[in-house]
Design a protein that fits this description.
2 copies of one chain form a homodimer. Chain A is α/β, with parallel strands linked by helices. Chain A is built from 15 helices and 11 strands. The two termini of chain A are about 25 Å apart.
Chain lengths: ~375, ~375
């Protein structure tokens, strides 16, 4: 393919793959797509290691880094320590979680119950500094308008800056903030997402951007529910420049996904996900489980705390649950969950990441041919 | 266009238009699409009149009729009178609605407060009998598996039977029940809908139908959020045979939509709709308003009654609200709502129905060309 965005990013196929797993990033980039490493959960020295490994694998082929820097979070601008943030978590919440675990036959009273959240926004700058010492070709922020230092770094280095949006109003805001690439992500997406579906959001965002007075024509990638080439082709028919994907890589051979969660994903249909704030404090789509059922919007569920407080208490517990689930613990298996989009209903087999890319290309071509054929007399 | 479904239905463009307005049905059919009259709200003698009018307008061109016969509803099989059904509505609900209206400066204590619901399922058979006396080319049920008498009528007359589904499991059930056409409707749709988005649902349904042992390859129309030709093209790229639309006709010149509601729709973005059971008792997508805010899933909202009880109390009040809103009553304007999908964000101008069809065709061609161009070297 020779579209504008392929030229701009030096790729053969405008399939962008977000993953926390360096192997997936390298495999997608080496197969002609564009891998993007989710860097937020790493310490700066770890990120440096991961990126060095990718550099060796891709030998100059393009890849990017995504760093989540939330625009709004509890304690923003207050420069709070972990302890000070922890003090804002109500005492009875610990009891609520203990009870939930107890009914699932789990006792982790000897384990650390809270951990700093990777979504607290305070490591973004140092992670970005690390990333900029590597030949990255894109920097992205998956939650709101990128921080000033990212926009500034983009201007200084010429490296494009991408931002995820779930509503047309946010897209306009991002274009005005100077972003170079918009990822318009529908409600069917795994992880943080809005309420508008991809099929409606893409044309709405394109229309809104085109109407920005004096606005630059920023390319838009479609995201949300896209796990096949036909869905990517549909997105390009809608006017998107390509696709941004995440969930589909979670069941690849290379992925970091907890083994029991992979089994859940393979068995899940599209109706087995829910948009819940029970993991991070902001609505994000994940597998339905007894954990998500314990929090709103599930009827009778408890109201989650804001980001990053909910994440500080949820993440360490969920990590422990993953381990127990892998060991065959039935209560932990009922609680186990992870971010994934509705496309999980179409993810039915573990495959190498490279094979996923090749299947995307084949399926994209077949879909384009199908649409072309509908016009023949 | 010369696709299989065009041949099967004798149309030039596989755009199916559901409307309660006979003018829209005739206009779409005459423009080369396929109009489908929503027949449920009519008395049998009224439906006969509407269809006779359409017959005169379309002069043999194909159209269809949709009759909602819910598979599940309160009082099913009990043969209850209106009074007996009304007795199942808790007393305090009337007070709840009175209070909601009073806070909006509305007093309708002199008005009838309940009316038989057109969704009670008991007029379906007589409406279908009327429809079968007209040269209809499709009969559809927009809520669950079509009743036996519709499937039976399809077999006897050779007229195809269509059913709407919001999940792949339902699609398989419908194919096994003998349905000839599946309308797979995503969560972004106006009216009754499920939770899976169109972009995910279409491939999931196609895959599930293909896997039915010994199953017939039933064509699938895409529905939900489709208000432009580019979205229809995206659906065909996904594998759908065409599009089933509803919302887009609500802001046409011909539509029956209450005038103030049309203004609300033109101003709305895709985020101004909500999936709420507050109108019919089953989750259906509609414009957000003070009415939908009064019912779950809105936080603090009251739990709606099941179908058709909720509809018996909501519909007469909402009709009255429409009239007051048109007269400029601010409280009524805040309460006014109607079924519409997220595509409302792309509906920004009142147009004749014929023009909407022509724009669909033009936009479809442009989208197909865009996708084709992405493959050029």
């Amino acid at each position: 393919m020779k579209t504008e965005i392929c030229d701009q990013f030096g790729i053969e196929f405008p399939l962008f793959a977000f993953s926390h797993c360096r192997d997936v990033v390298a495999a997608v980039t080496n197969a002609g797509g564009f891998g993007v490493l989710g860097g937020t959960a790493f310490r700066p020295d770890q990120l440096d290691q991961e990126l060095s490994w990718i550099d060796e694998q891709v030998k100059g082929k393009p890849y990017g880094v995504d760093i989540i820097v939330p625009a709004k979070f509890e304690g923003k601008g207050e420069n709070l320590s972990f302890g000070q943030l922890a003090d804002r978590i109500p005492d009875d919440l610990r009891g609520f979680i203990d009870e939930l675990l107890a009914t699932h036959d789990i006792d982790i009273s000897d384990q650390p119950r809270m951990a700093p959240s990777s979504l607290s926004g305070d490591t973004g700058k140092s992670l970005l500094d690390v990333a900029l010492n590597h030949p990255i070709k894109l920097m992205a922020n998956a939650l709101g308008v990128p921080p000033d230092y990212m926009i500034e770094a983009g201007k200084q280095t010429g490296i494009p800056v991408a931002a995820l949006v779930g509503a047309k109003e946010h897209a306009v805001k991002q274009v005005n903030a100077g972003v170079d690439l918009i990822v318009a992500q529908g409600t069917e997406a795994g992880g943080h997402c809005g309420e508008v579906t991809t099929l409606v959001l893409i044309p709405e965002v394109l229309e809104a951007i085109a109407a920005v007075p004096g606005g630059r024509q920023v390319p838009v990638l479609a995201a949300g529910g896209i796990v096949t080439g036909r869905q990517m082709a549909a997105s390009v028919a809608l006017g998107a420049a390509g696709a941004w994907t995440g969930s589909v890589w979670l069941t690849t051979e290379e992925a970091e996904t907890a083994p029991y969660t992979v089994q859940k994903m393979l068995a899940a249909t599209s109706r087995d996900t829910v948009r819940s704030a029970g993991r991070t404090g902001k609505p994000s789509r994940q597998l339905v489980s007894d954990w998500t059922d314990a929090w709103q919007p599930h009827p009778g569920g408890r109201e989650p705390l804001p980001l990053p407080l909910q994440n500080m208490i949820a993440e360490p517990v969920l990590r422990r649950i993953d381990k127990l689930a892998e060991g065959g613990h039935p209560g932990a298996q009922a609680l186990a969950t992870y971010f994934v989009g509705q496309g999980v209903g179409l993810m039915n087999k573990v495959k190498p990441a490279r094979e996923v890319v090749l299947e995307f290309i084949e399926d994209y071509l077949a879909a384009a041919e199908r649409l072309g054929r509908s016009l023949e007399d």
